[in-house]
Amino acid sequence: MAITTDVAAPAQEGAQDQSTRGNRLSPQLRRKRRRETREGWAFVAPAMLVILGLSIFPAAWALLLSLQKWNGFATPKFVGVDNYVRLISDDEFIDAIVHTGLYVVLFVPASVLAGLFLAVALNRNIRFIGFYRTAIFVPFVASAAATGILSTYLFSPQYGLVNNVLRVLGLPAQGWLEDPSQAMVVIAIMSLWGQAAFTTVIYLAALQDIPGELVESAKIDGASRWQAFWFVVWPQLSPVTVFVTIWQVIGAIQLFDLVYTTTRGGPLDATKTIVYFLWEKAFKNLQFGYGSAAAYVLFLVTLLITIGLVVYARRRNLEAF
Amino acid sequence: MAALTSDRLTQEAPSSSEAKRRRPRISGWHFVLAPIALLFLTPFVQMLLASLSPAEELVRFPPPFIPSRLTFDGFVGLFTDTQILRWLLNSTIVSVIAIGAHVVLCSLAGYGFARLRFRGRDFGFLAIVATIMIPTQLLMIPTYIMFSRLGLIDSLAAAFVPWLASAFGIFLMRQFFLSIPVELEEAAALDGASRLQTFLRVVLPLAKPALATLAIFTLLGAWNDLIWPLVAINKENLFTIQLGIANFQSTRRTQWSLLMASNVVATAPLIAFFLFAQKHFIATMTMSGLKG
To answer: Which A residues 276-315 touch B at CB under 8 Å?
Structure first.
């Protein structure tokens, strides 16, 4: 079915093109075309305007801003690539990249593995499975603000549940969000709590697409359950793995909300991320040009990582795109 | 399944596994899933317990695991001392407008790109898809400047205008409309229905699942957004709920019962929605996975 329609459609279009090219468009056809164009644009124009005004235009403006020095009030001064040069030598920005990188390393592999494990665990018909799924999925709707406030309570060194449990177990209390070496770990744990549902759902959908016969036949061939998973299921999942990894990396690079509602970049700037830096520069110090340059660096880093992962996946023949 | 098992029975099956299969047993996965489920629910339980605890017990050392008594003091304080009702109303207004506009504009555009043939269509669609890659943080600064010139800063419009339509929404709806058979629309056209009539009467009723997905996607985004309202709104009576509770963090430090009560109030509507329409939420999560 799919093949026949695929072949038929271009053939038809080609025939039409030829006929229209051969003899000049008849006035009738031209009128019809014009009407269709008007009609088409009537459908798409309102949404197009929003995208144009709120994505394409600001993206172009941000590029211009990144080449200027401007505080929002005085006349903007064109400074070329100065902002970018300054960024590279700004220790605060380099630190922000390092902190963001630390979060990516802590969060992304954990969220992908947790998603895979939870999906395998949830992909079965046992009693209470509905309850288990709901329990694991429901944190997904909690906002970053709510999650952040909750984190400061759960991980409060004096009053929090986590240290209280450690105390009962006879383990030493930790500083958590107040300890520069632990703060990012806490943020990654709480992100995982809120977002494990996402990777789990994606893997669950992929697992349910794998034909049961594949696993069955592997088992008949004498494969253990673990071997069946490792040699049959896991390769089938690899495009999904590439995809969720890219997706989680892009999200992780943009970490802000949870930092804002837990540590505000502290302690000792240990959780100051790229977006936190950008927000501070632009909206606290009113350095619109400098902030825009940081935003473009963020964009470029995102693009490079995405392209890198896609190329890596292609090389290993893991077609995800 | 039944066929499979009966097949197995006729074959020579190892007797030990056969015996196991006959005895109804509890799946070992319960021992994995039950603790995990509890772990995932613990933060919510703690939030609820703390919101109902007497304030003084939450700053005692060592803190009790279970409060000695339950009290609504946190909620009473929250609703009498703060503008939380106002913030809830603001967030509701923003979310409702965002969802309404999003559903209308994205389904119209999605349909146009999926079904109509017109000059500039492919280029227009490509331009839209390209914007999906742009991080919102890149757009914040120019949008802020633009909105302040338009006088939108410190208004609720500042919070909902960015949510009126999205490239992802258009993309999602286009993919959906491409997946439904075109014959239905052709039949309507033969009956003399205009494009708009066909769209409204024939296509949209079929699109309910996709529209639900889009609505939930917008709800989660608009209700939970923090960074943009933080940038665009400074007046306390115009705060969204997220901005309001985030602000408590600095003003109500260690007033845990009030903070946790505010958290309950900010999260409960979405949790209720989730429990009510879990199927659609899960579809939304899967779909937003298709975004790339």
So the answer is: 278-279, 282-283, 288, 291-292, 295-296, 298-299, 302-303, 306
